[in-house]
């Protein structure tokens, strides 16, 4: 059936033009690849051990001979400082871009769940919408309410941004791809994310608006409360790994699902659930988005913000999804461990310490980064699903949940793990057996869940259509 | 000048006094609440209405009887058919004119379809106020189909102006019946999906069960009606107890709240009743379509409507409660007084007495469960 | 029970304070003396056969010719499924009627609305203030002799005819007409009027 051409309305093209699709794919695939590649190269290289070798090789290829052994300590420190700054820049950009893409993904997923078309104008599949939104927010009028506390109002977003940006330092992107393998990695992460509370509380208070104050208070109560079960739940993988370092925790896990911490210890599975819920609460995600409860408080602590300051909050909120998912993956889901690749393989591919690693090592790093990214994105997707399915809980119910349920459960899991660790040393096969059993149980539940989903779909006369993109 | 309402709250002690509204993202319209809170717990929530007052009753005295019909749509624009029907019935009582059977059937069908549409908005926005965004959009999607059906029937999607004094404006289009039946087949399955999605979700039930309980005595004393009244356990429905139009011919159940998940009279009862009522409306539409009589759809009514002097009241079971039209005629072609009694107006009166001790989230749940719309309150 | 029977019961109990049932002008009513209003309503509510537990509607009618304002009460019984209509007459110059808030809580808001739009004062009402209109509104709009004040706090409610307003704005934007444009000018005015 041909569409009648109405003379006055412009003919809207039914399909996205080829150029737009190509541009979208280029940016959508290319930009993350560039960022990941930058992290891939820069993270190991900016360590003092490798920096000299790398510069020697790179500048040597350009024809400039350098002798790193002859550098004075000052020069070494200077080069190290510069390289670290570049890495920091890349990481912050990564955080921002990932936040934008998370916005796009979340809006896409939510529109599908809600039977809507969703973003489809700016770029194929609406991919550049977040860029357009960011530009729009930057161009808006920057309103600071006259009655608001000027300094605190302007400073608050930066606390939040700092708390967010600092976490990227300790995220393990791959086997050797971590900006700083702090030996108290996870402890550092938890403490640094607490800066976000300060920012939110400042925002609510300094806005000089009662509703913003409500939002700020609620959020402060929420985040501070949920730090406790999150912290206790983190003890369990720390105990199981014997270290606070992120890389060490991952190294103690295996690559296959039945070797992940989440499955090798029943208490760890419980702790994973507790940790996940607590992270949702700390990130102000539904069902814990009371601080921004739209229907009650408009935007809660954000009500008075506009333009770039508002953009900063949103950047942090969506970027936090990545951080949350990354930490959960690291602690419970095996991190970057690649199946069939053992620890010795990495060491073997590394080669002698005095030379740059060969292509095999870089290939392994790429593999491990891919595994990490995929796992994190899967958890991120799950967080997005939860937001658009569940309603919001009330303030007192939220506090009840935290203090009366999650904290005791987390402590119980912790005590159990103390005993479990002793048992594991006595009975060598216990961990593996539990892993296989729990993972099998998880698979069975997943199958049931899928069956139920498909049954519900057909009960309403619907069907899955993956071409409906 | 200080608003008199502020003299009812004590502003010198430690509690915060806030404005909850008049612009807030719930779609209940422009209503303001002066809320006195101690942290999250309310001491008092006093409604402050009148932001949408459009003097519809005064206009009724100026435009003449047929001319007032479009204004009735605006009394409750979410479920406008009921207002049309109420007004038409009142003037027909004054004129002593009976609409023909086909017109009464068409009125019933259009009203029940609009009841479904209105309840979809009600339960959807209630879910959205509680924080679940998805059910609202699913409800809107279904409502779009109903809007399309009604648009085929009478040309408008929101303010229908479909009923006339003496009948209805247009007859059923061709094949409309099949489209409606096709939609209802889909809709009955949709209701089950909706229940699976949100109605019995644990978080949702915890937010609504045993919250803001309105006892039976309170409900009757404050004049609540419709799902608000039935949610508190009073078994009264104007369609069944004071039958009008084609309703005596249809078999339908009237769901009454007995404490589905909490106690009778809580927010969950009022919410779930609306879900059940949608199913009942679907049954009524099916019965009506299957038993549709032939004939005229409009009675012979003079062009210049001049009823004899007198007064008439008509009541219809609107989506939001009992809507009563009280029309006073003095023998001329303009009404002497048109009075609209709406369910939402009465529902606002109960908020002040139920609100002490609620939390802010509960206040949102209460307002949403009473299904108030600002145009009905303020007219 | 039918309206006639209800009226008989009322008459039997209250005698002359309850007026005769009006002619069956579609919906008949009876006029009650306002001093006994609260008692009559309590009786209607509490008597087991009558059981009027719902105050369905409370509104007013303005009769300037009779110099009276009638307050109209519609009652309904959930138990017995019957209805009844009462009226009370008040002097138009200063209408005062007892409040039914002690009998039915629904009267609270309904009487506030009648106070707001008609100016009827309800004695014994706990919180008689305007409900739909702002607190400092002058006048009672639903009265037949209500004159609009032409605005409120500087917000005008009159507006010039949009066609006149747009033409005035267009003329203000155009530069002053040059003499060379004069021959064209006579051609322009007839066209709009021809279209109009």
Give a quick account of the main beta sheet of chain A: strands, pairing sense, barrel closure. none
Overall body shape of chain B: globular
Count of strand segments of chain A: 0
Structure summary, number of beta strands of chain B:
8
What characteristics describe this protein?
heterotrimer; A: 469 residues; mainly alpha; 17 helices; 0% strand; C: 196 residues; alpha/beta; 5-stranded mixed beta sheet; two-stranded parallel sheet; 6 helices; 29% helix; 23% strand; elongated
Secondary structure layout plus pairing:
The complex is a heterotrimer of chains A (469), B (379) and C (196).
Chain A: H1 18-45, H2 48-61, H3 73-113, H4 129-139, H5 150-167, H6 185-193, H7 195-206, H8 210-241, H9 246-251, H10 261-264, H11 266-282, H12 294-297, H13 307-332, H14 343-350, H15 359-389, H16 395-426, H17 430-459
Helix pairs in contact in A: 1-3, 3-13, 3-15, 4-13, 5-6, 5-7, 5-13, 7-8, 8-11, 8-16, 11-16, 13-15, 14-15
Chain B: E1 16-20, E2 32-38, E3 41-48, H1 56-60, H2 69-73, H3 80-95, H4 101-130, H5 134-154, E4 163-164, E5 167-168, H6 176-199, H7 202-208, H8 216-221, H9 227-231, H10 238-241, H11 267-290, E6 310-318, E7 321-329, E8 335-341, H12 343-354, H13 360-370, H14 374-378
Antiparallel strand pairs in B: 1-2, 2-3, 4-5, 6-7, 7-8
Chain C: H1 3-14, E1 18-21, E2 30-32, H2 37-46, E3 54-63, E4 68-76, E5 83-91, E6 96-98, H3 107-118, E7 121-123, E8 151-152, E9 155-156, H4 162-173, H5 184-187, H6 190-195
Task: Give structural notes.
The complex is a heterotrimer of chains A (about 475), B (about 375) and C (about 200). By secondary structure, chain A is mainly α. Chain A is about 70% helix and about 0% strand. Chain A starts with 17 loop residues before the first helix and ends in a 10-residue tail after the last helix. The model of chain A has no long low-confidence stretch (mean pLDDT about 85). Chain B has one domain: Cytochrome-c3 Hydrogenase, chain B. In chain B, helix 3 (about 80-95) packs antiparallel against helix 4, helix 4 (about 100-130) runs antiparallel to helix 13 (about 360-370) and helix 6 (about 175-200) runs antiparallel to helix 11 (about 265-290). Chain B is globular and about 65 Å long. With about 375 residues, chain B is of the alpha+beta class. By secondary structure, chain C is of the alpha/beta class. Chains B and C meet through helix 8, strand 6, strand 7, strand 8 and helix 12 of B and strand 3 and helix 3 of C.
